[in-house]
Amino acid sequence: MGRSPCCEKAHTNKGAWTKEEDDRLIAYIRAHGEGCWRSLPKAAGLLRCGKSCRLRWINYLRPDLKRGNFTQQEDELIIKLHSLLGNKWSLIAGRLPGRTDNEIKNYWNTHIRRKLVSRGIDPTSHKPINNIIQPQEQEQEEEEEEEKKIKTSVLNKQEEEVLEEEERCPDLNLDLRISPPPHQEPFKTGASTLCFVCSTLGGKACNCNEQAAGAGSIIISGSGSRTNSGYDFLALDYRSLQMK
DNA sequence: AAGGGAAGCAACCGCAGAGAG
DNA sequence: TCTCTCTGCGGTTGCTTCCCT
């Protein structure tokens, strides 16, 4: 039977968006809010596919987007999050206010990947590139793989994912739920904090101290030491993170 | 100045998951 | 429980700009 197309391709524009199209989309969303992307183009008088409108809004037109270069701190945060989450760009973007998954994905592929390689780190595994596996280690890895197979065969998919994540980062609490934050006060260890409410990063005065304590903060220290995953210069307090 | 390659980024495509009926 | 629709995500493509020769 096949999948039905998301829109009438014959009558839709493709490629770069014009100023007029942008204006129409902005005006429509301001008046009616986000959502119903399928019907939005027709209602807004746009010859675009709903998906295209959604993408344009989310990646480019949203008023809360932070434009401009990534900061060093954002860089390191992306690397750290990528080492924990992999190519889960939307999750990573959720930790970087004002940045989109597409933007982070592009930035990763064009800048960070190269940066890691030049540091001698494999951007996929976050391990040193010249980490040659010795026969004994390989045997051990195979054993672990076998054990994992047995383990995962008796777990459902959700449990499996949580287990995998915990194995990769034992400190990461993935018991994600909407609940009062574990810390009523942001850490004050002389390190700088990232506030997810007002997007303040790098030790600047936070606009919303009270809310920030409830929204989850990332503590960024400058120790610069290395762990197995390669980066320990970000001492993240993942337990205070909450899903968007 | 012009051409070609590399880099950067916006946008598209196809798939998967969630939810409704 | 199944089917269908809609939305969101990640991978990929292709256009534009920059830089080097």
UniProtKB/TrEMBL annotation:
Boundaries of every HTH myb-type domain copy: 9-61, 62-116
Main localization of the protein described in the UniProt heading: nucleus
Gene3D superfamilies the record matches: Homeodomain-like
Region spans: Disordered: 125-153
Keywords: DNA-binding, Nucleus, Repeat
Localization per Swiss-Prot or TrEMBL: Nucleus
Protein name: Uncharacterized protein
Feature: compositional bias, Low complexity: 127-137
InterPro entries: Homeodomain-like_sf (IPR009057), Myb_dom (IPR017930), Myb_TF_plants (IPR015495), SANT/Myb (IPR001005)
Domain of life where this protein originates: Eukaryota
Coiled coil location: none
Pfam family of the protein (one): Myb_DNA-binding
Residue span(s) of domain Myb-like: 9-61, 62-112
SUPFAM superfamilies: Homeodomain-like
